[in-house]
Amino acid sequence: MENTMTPTLKRFIVLEGVDGAGTTTQLRRLDEALARRGIAHLVTCEPTPLPTGRLVRQVLKGEVDARPETLARLFSADRHEHLYGPGGVLECLGRGDVVVSDRYLFSSLVYQGIDCGPELPRLLNAAFPLPELLIYFDLPVEVSMARVERRAERDIFEHRTFQEKARAAYEAVLAEYADSPMRIVRLDASLPLEEVWARVAVAVGDLVGAGIVE
Asked: What is the pLDDT of residues 127-177, one digit of tens each?
């Protein structure tokens, strides 16, 4: 994948990390903070709530059987709709909004890269543009699993062996993109919630050109 040649979408922010890293919690905090500041924005996620994303979630929950290669293609199809469909990322960015997504192509490179091998996920995601900012929530697997085990429902990837592989795969993906135009901010997600939030707020505030906390 030629990372240095991949387009970068201004004002597009992505949150990534292993399961239980806290990306969803911080997405909600960002939504509230940006709204208080009157900054036009969209907070979103992958898989999406679209029909494509709902099918992905059914596979992840074990409700629908699918080959790993099929799931990789479903994620790619959902991502395409997420970016280019009506009301999607490109439309919002086009009118000057900030867009923050909980997960993006990096999750596919990690999770589907483990599940079906790296070649197909790389091929399926090679043409997708990069965000301007990637915030990676680094968390030891024992901590992430302690959080995941408190959930009422778990998906097919939320077990220790896979999450150990996922954390190592994230390190490889981050190294691969180190020289890309995308800015990467790495956070220690094992810190207290408010300390993590303070670092997220600084990173996003730098991008939008305004403080987002009181």
From this structure: 999 999 999 999 999 998 898 888 878 888 989 999 999 999 999 999 999
Is 112 within the bounds of a domain? yes
Inter-residue contact 69 to 63 (CB < 8 Å): no
Task: Report the Cα–Cα distance between both ends of the chain, in Å, rounded.
Answer: 41
Query: What is the number of structural domains in the chain?
Result: 1
- Domain assignment of residue 107, yes or no: yes
Domain limits for position 94: 3-208
If we measure between CA atoms, which residue out of 130, 102, 132 comes closest to residue 22? 102
Q: Is residue 192 part of a domain?
A: yes
141-144 long-range contacts, Cβ below 8 Å, gap at least 24? 141/18, 141/167, 143/20, 143/189, 143/190, 144/18, 144/19, 144/20, 144/21
**Cα gap 193→174, rounded to integer Å:** 23
| Its pTM surpasses 0.90 | yes
Domain harbouring 33, CATH code: 3.40.50.300
